[in-house]
Structure formats: structure tokens, C-alpha cells
Recover the amino acids of this structure.
């Protein structure tokens, strides 16, 4: 299996069936444009089919794990139905393809983790965060429903009360706080992030692969059971991209100001 056709991340093979998926370009905070968002959906099918892959370690760059989607991608979704429909399909595929990928996924989260990158970070089978990492689901701050992964997994990880608190307010959560509430598997000092991720990856790669994959498949039935909840949340997020709130949210981001959302809602 060759991964050279992917342009928004690179794949490096390590020993014993371990691959490293490195988001973004060297020295820059990874962000997803239209092409990158589609690639983030497709890669999990390739990993699943690759007989030489047992464990995937996903990481960002020195500046962070993920900066979310580009403003151009968000604006295109707000302006055009076809763009919204394409991103809806890709966002759905990111979640379901990760759930259905038989190989074990480990995320190593540093700096900010936003948008589709945050979905990958939290849908990983084992999520390891630097203590000073910054996890941010900013959907409601932008003016759309939290739809691209949050409804399917946040309540299962950290409970409904914490999920509502952070998703409704678009709060930033440190790596330490994320571990305390159960949103990530483990936190370590930043210098230990990658060594810890690869230590766990080596243990898993040396383990019984059928047993590990069947365990993952069984546990992920909790997520499959919540599929209708996710589908609903994603559809409502896309519906919101056609409304006034996201236009104000996008303008506020561009102008670096606090958004002034409409005070009433037709909902």
C-alpha cells in the first residue's frame, strides 16, 4: 500500500507494523482545506486494507495537532449547497471510517486540537494528550451545532453534564482537564508525548492482532449504536451553515471580534 498520493499529511512506516500519520506541513499548524478534509475521510479505509499496518500513531506538528478547517472551506459551506453536501459526506466518513478501521489508532495530542483534527484525536482508540494541550470544539462559537463527532462520543467519554457544559460554551479544555473528566485516555508532559505514544504502539503491535481487533470492534458497537444521534447532529450542523448565525460567526473570526449573534431563533 502506497500513501504518497495524500497531500495534507504524510505516512511514515516504523517497525513491527507501526505507522505514523503526521498531519500538516512541517513548521505549520495543520489545517484542513477542501482537499485535506476529503483525505482525512479516506485514509482510514487504506489503513484498514493494508496488511502491513497494525497500529497507527496520529500526530500534528510542533505548533499543534490541528487548527480546524480553513476559513475558505467554512465560507464555501455557508455559500453553496454542493460544498455543504460534500463536507457532510466527508464528515460522516471520517467518523464511521475511523470506527470501522480494524487497526488500533493512537492519537498524540499537543497544542490546539480543533475541528476535524479534534474528531480524529478523540475517536482514536487511545488518546494521549500533552498536559498543556488545548482541546476546543468551537462549533457553537461559530454559529452551528456541534455535529462532526461530538454527539456520538463526548457523552460516552466524559458524561452528558460535562459534554453539554463544554460543547454549549465552546470552552477550551486543557490536556490535564481532559484526562480528569475522561475525555482523553492519558496525559503526559509535552516532552514525553511521542515516546509514550510509541511505547504503547509497540506493546500493541506485539500483541495478538485478532484479539485486539475484535475487542476494538466489540467496544465500538457502543458508537455504532449511537449512529442515529451522530447522523442527526451532523445534519443539523449542515442545516446551520445556511443560516444567519454562521455568517455572523465567520465575520467575527475574520474581523477578530466577539460575534453579535441574532437574539431570536426560529427553532
Amino acid at each position: 500500500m502506497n500513501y504518497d498520493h495524500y497531500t495534507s499529511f504524510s505516512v511514515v512506516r516504523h517497525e513491527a507494523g507501526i505507522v505514523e500519520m503526521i498531519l500538516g506541513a512541517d513548521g505549520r499548524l495543520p489545517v484542513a482545506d477542501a482537499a485535506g478534509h476529503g483525505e482525512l475521510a479516506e485514509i482510514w479505509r487504506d489503513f484498514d486494507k493494508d496488511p502491513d499496518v497494525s497500529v497507527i500513531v496520529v500526530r500534528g506538528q510542533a505548533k499543534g495537532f490541528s487548527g480546524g478547517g480553513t476559513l475558505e472551506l467554512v465560507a464555501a459551506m455557508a455559500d453553496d449547497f454542493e460544498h455543504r453536501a460534500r463536507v457532510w459526506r466527508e464528515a460522516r466518513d471520517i467518523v464511521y471510517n475511523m470506527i470501522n478501521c480494524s487497526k488500533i489508532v493512537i492519537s498524540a495530542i499537543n497544542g490546539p486540537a480543533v475541528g476535524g483534527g479534534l474528531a480524529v484525536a478523540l475517536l482514536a482508540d487511545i488518546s494521549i494528550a500533552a498536559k498543556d494541550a488545548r482541546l476546543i470544539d468551537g462549533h457553537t462559537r461559530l454559529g452551528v451545532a456541534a455535529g462532526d463527532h461530538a454527539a456520538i462520543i463526548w457523552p460516552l467519554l466524559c458524561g452528558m453534564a460535562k459534554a453539554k457544559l463544554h460543547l454549549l460554551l465552546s470552552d477550551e479544555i486543557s490536556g490535564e482537564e481532559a484526562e480528569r473528566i475522561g475525555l482523553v485516555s492519558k496525559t503526559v508532559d509535552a516532552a514525553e508525548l511521542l515516546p509514550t505514544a510509541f511505547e504503547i504502539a509497540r506493546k500493541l503491535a506485539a500483541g495478538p492482532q485478532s484479539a485486539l481487533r475484535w475487542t476494538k470492534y466489540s467496544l465500538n458497537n457502543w458508537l455504532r449504536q449511537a449512529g442515529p444521534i451522530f447522523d442527526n447532529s451532523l445534519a443539523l450542523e449542515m442545516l446551520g451553515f445556511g443560516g444567519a448565525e454562521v455568517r455572523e460567526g465567520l465575520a467575527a473570526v475574520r474581523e477578530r471580534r466577539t460575534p453579535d449573534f441574532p437574539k431570536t431563533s426560529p427553532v
